[in-house]
Amino acid sequence: MERQTLIRVEGLTKTFNKVNVIDNLSIRFHAGDRIALIGQNGAGKTTLIRCILGLYTYEGFLSVLNKNPRTQREEVLQQVGFVPQMPPPLAMTVKEIMHFFSVITESDRDTFYRITDDLNLDVKKHWNKPFLKLSGGMKQKLLVALALSRRPKILLMDEPTANLDPAARKVLVRYLEELPSDTLLILSSHRVKEIAHLVNRLVEMDLGKIVVDKAFDDDYHTSDDDF
Questions:
Q1: Considering only CA atoms, which of 157, 163, 143, 171 is closest in space to residue 35?
Q2: Are 227 and 192 in contact (CB under 8 A)?
Q3: pLDDT at site 124
Q4: Among the four residues 180, 190, 205, 218, which has the most C-beta atoms within 10 Å?
Q5: pLDDT score, position 139
Q6: Cα(136)–Cα(130) distance, integer angstroms
Q7: 56 - beta bridge partners?
Q8: In the predicted model, is pLDDT for residue 199 greater than 70?
Q9: Closest CA to 41 of 195, 196, 198, 159
Q10: Cα separation of 194 and 1, whole Å?
């Protein structure tokens, strides 16, 4: 049975300062794909993710859940969870962020609290603290919990373990292992070693193009450190 296409990209080009950061890229991502999106800095991974989220204008065609992420962004984001590489500079308090996300995305609060507890983040202790004042690790844990508690159809994670301690990394991996089988997971990372058992497809980018797109091979090797 053919799997449902959740993201369709055709001839996508994104230019910054006359340089094609995404260069005539075409690819499809399907329900149930567990993708390791890899490549060096500047390969275009984060730019592709931001186009999918509707954050950038672009040339070419891009649909997410059969919707235009630019003109139907609110509808798209209701079904997409995202953990960015760099936490946004939010001035809202932890309590305000939780309320905001639970209203617009119908996140499950009990699930959110369970995940934060598992990540060893006492959110209520920091309830009235601005997000900006949290440590890097606390910000990342909060963003991970918000994304996972939504049970989205598409989960995008851009270097999600960048500020996580080893124990929190293990918790994150466990939750990713328990995702519904039809969830599309795209994990952008420089490294694939620790996520190898999570993924079934490898997509490698270089200079804005797809240079590898294949079923993940357990024998795939990189010289990078652990995830």
A1: 157
A2: yes
A3: 86
A4: 205
A5: 94
A6: 13
A7: none
A8: yes
A9: 159
A10: 30
Q: What's the DSSP call for residue 153? A: S
Q: Domains in the chain, ordered, with CATH?
A: 5-215 (3.40.50.300)
Contact 19, 67 (CB under 8 A): no
Residue 70 is encoded by which pair of tokens?
């630019």
What is the pLDDT confidence band of residue 196, given thresholds at 50, 70 and 90? confident
Degrees, nearest 5: CA angle 161-165-166: 90
Percent of the chain, pLDDT > 90?
Answer: 71
| pLDDT recorded at residue 71 | 95
State the pLDDT confidence band at 160, using cuts at 50, 70 and 90.
Answer: confident
Q: Please give the Cα distance from 189 to 85 (Å, whole number).
A: 10
DSSP code for 180: -
Distance CA 35, CA 204 (A): 10
Structure token digits, residue 101: 């996300």
- Compute the distance between CA of residue 138 and CA of residue 149 in angstroms, rounded to an integer: 16
Position of tokens 């996140």? Answer: 107
28-83 pLDDT, tens digit each: 999 999 999 999 888 999 999 999 999 999 999 999 999 999 999 989 988 999 99
